[in-house]
């Protein structure tokens, strides 16, 4: 037996042992003289809500675009379940199981909730011929939409209701529910509560928590600090094109977080206990 076999083995903390769902290393994106992403790192663990915060122009959107295939980085790498991926379009990212909910609601108001849930992924009846003839299986879409919404405890009377009859929060809820239905790996949400009132914003936060609790990790870009602190497991602070700090919202105050974001507190001056691991 070798000496090493006698060494005590300290198992890593359970959350550290979990593999990363998504990781970005050293991402760079330049537009002429402007560096939108300047060597950014990012990581996402299974089943967590990772908030991404940063001042205007910090480069949050650019980072998210790189992770969702809407932008091709000049340098760096993105790993999904530990494997390098090279997204050239948002469809590439969707095919890899990454769904994005954009700030400007991507719902079709005149269509029903069920149709919106299946928008671009309609179910057809009658096999290959039915698909060729575009025989949409409305009944199955309605049943599956109802089941899915029930699973998320989304209280809506009828899935055949046109989305234009819903409140802003409910519409955003439909967009979130659609992302949750099709995402295999990651849901990215860009300011999902920005245009909503207090009650509706809370409803969408609840829905995001349910998505997380069903095991899907969520990346949440938000300027709304109370929302971030209410819902995030970890906070990625983006500043000047890169990750400035990874914070633990259970340990750091909202005021200090904002100071890190604006540069009033240098990340290296933070005490170790407020950093997220
Ligand atoms: N297509 C582009 N062409 C030129 N410059 C760009 C482009 N996209 C982003 N930038 C620049 O890159 C920097 C980061 O922009 P980005 O939109 O990613 O920041 P942000 O943190 O999302 O800002 P905001 O919160 O205001 O949306 C800014 O200086 C921006 O002007």
From TrEMBL:
The answer, when asked if Nucleotide-binding is one of the entry's keywords, is: yes
User: What residue stretches are annotated with the ABC transporter domain?
Assistant: 22-265
Checking Pfam families in the record gives: ABC_tran (PF00005)
Task: Keyword check for DNA damage, yes or no.
Answer: no
Instruction: Please name the Gene3D superfamilies in this protein's record.
Output: P-loop containing nucleotide triphosphate hydrolases (3.40.50.300)
Q: Which UniProt keywords apply?
A: ATP-binding, Nucleotide-binding
Name a GO molecular-function annotation. ATP hydrolysis activity
What the entry lists under InterPro entries is as follows: AAA+_ATPase, ABC_carbohydrate_import_ATPase, ABC_transporter-like_ATP-bd, P-loop_NTPase
The name under which this protein is listed is: Sugar ABC transporter ATP-binding protein
